[in-house]
Every structure is written in structure tokens, then in C-alpha cells.
Amino acid sequence: MGRQPCCDKLGVKKGPWTADEDKKLINFILTNGQCCWRAVPKLAGLRRCGKSCRLRWTNYLRPDLKRGLLSDAEEKLVIDLHARLGNRWSKIAARLPGRTDNEIKNHWNTHIKKKLLKMGIDPVTHEPLKKEANLIDQPIQESDQNKINGHQQVQVVPECTSVTAAATSSELDNSSYSASSTSSSENSSSITDESKLVLNTLGENDPLLSSLLEVDAPLVDSLWELPVSSEEQKKFDNMTSWDDSLNWLLDCQDFGIHDFGFDNCFNDVELEVFNTIDDMENKQ
DNA sequence: AATCTAGGCAACCGCCAATAT
DNA sequence: TATATTGGCGGTTGCCTAGAT
Q: What is the CATH number of the domain that holds A29?
């Protein structure tokens, strides 16, 4: 009955990956592509669980991953998407090319969450903390809301009590805040008409958001297939040392999708999104 | 210089829907 | 149809590092 176990628990290594393990995994996937993760450790000569291999690849070794802190545009997008989707990190990550759910989750917990709290914004509901407290005692005064850490563009939407504004995250410290939400982010699957209106308005002013906020937009992850060009493969095969390989990978991660020859994996709309992001980053 | 503390991040854990047998 | 496993996800942990004392 059923399938074979993913891996026998005995003899499976845990903890940080070594450079040698990374090399084996990269070599295997570049040669064979992603197939059955259960078989990967055995075929690649790794004493790891298939699950661990998948995680290591998707979160760290994938050549199209970006490195470094999230840009202002990305941070803004994360906040907007979180307001709509809640803690559905994989959905959010799918709309940020080159970023992983783990990375976004970590960035949220370590940076964005604090920024929002500092501003008096509840990172869960995306509503002013002061307002929530007041809901218990008394209705909030609109003038009070606008005073909260100087939220210049915060406006209260009647009935749905959504908070919306437009700003880049670099302005967060200057107390502008960008988000749209239903009264509960966890109920994001049913977007209210008011929220749709807010999102449409955001999209009109921001082509990037317009593309990325499309609920039915194709997800980047679903297209991930690793069609590495023969030229790139040859380059990798000719590398004499692990350092060469690692440097090559890191170089690739500094480039964009196009530099790596992934253009064929994406349709016109997705490529347009990538180009927009590239343009925005170049302007910074 | 040694120790303590907090922040950041990679990796693991446990759950669940999808799927193979 | 029932059962077991896979793959994927979100939550959490624990290690490492930098800054403070």
C-alpha cells in the first residue's frame, strides 16, 4: 500500500549544509533537472532527506535567487500582498521573482513587522493599533488616526474599515504606509468590493503593482523548470574547483533572469514584470 | 579582552492536500 | 476505496555574528 518512504530516518544528516554537499546537489540538478526529490539524495550521493535537498535548493542554491535586502519596491509589494493574503508566504514569494517564501517570511519577521509596530500599525490586521484599542472603548476620531506617527495619507474607508495609503517602504520611517486590507487578513480569500476598488486604484498608479497584484497571474514558481542552456552547462562542467562553481553561481545571482537565459521560461507578461523591476532597481 | 545580548537567517518540524499504490 | 507517501507550506528553533557592556 502507498509509496515508499521518503527516506529512512537512520543515517540521515541534519544541520547546516557543507560546500561539498552543495556542490553535489547543484551538480545533480544541473545535470538531471528537478525530478523526484525522494530520489535526489540517493542519486546525488547525499546523506540527506529529499525534503532537506528541496529546501536547500529552493531557498539557497537556485541560480535565479536574488541576494541581499529587499528593495523598496519589493518591500512595498510584500506589505501590500500581506495585507491581502496574510501569512501566505509562498503566494507572496511567487509574485516576487528571485525571492523565496522563507526569505520574505524572515524579512517580514525581522524588519517589516518592527517598522509597522513602530508606526503604530498592527502587522497582522494592517490597521492602526490605536484604532483597534479604541474599537473596544469608543469610536476612533479621524483626526486621531491621521496623527498616528504622522501617517500622511492614511484614510479610513467607511464600513469596511480598511486602511489604505500609497508610499514606498523607504518612506516607512517617515511614516507613510502602503497597504490595503480587509478587516481580517486571514479572510483574504474573499476580497471585498471596497478592497478591489482600493487595489484597482493602486494598480492604476503603479504598473508594477497592477501586474503583480493580479490574483490570477501565473505564478513564477510553477514555471520553474531549470532549462539551463548548453553553454551554461558547459561553463559549469569546466569549472575546476568548488570556488569556481560557487563564484559562478553567485555571479548568476547578481544578474537577472535575462542574463541567465531564463527568458524562454516566462511569457510576455511575466517578462514585462521582470523588466519593470529591473528598471526600478536601475533607477535606484 | 571577555562576556552578554539581540538580531538575522538557515534549517527543521509538523501539518495538510494531492497523489500513487 | 482505503491507506501511505510526497511535496509544499507556515511556524518555530537554534546557531552565528555584531554590537554593547
A: 1.10.10.60
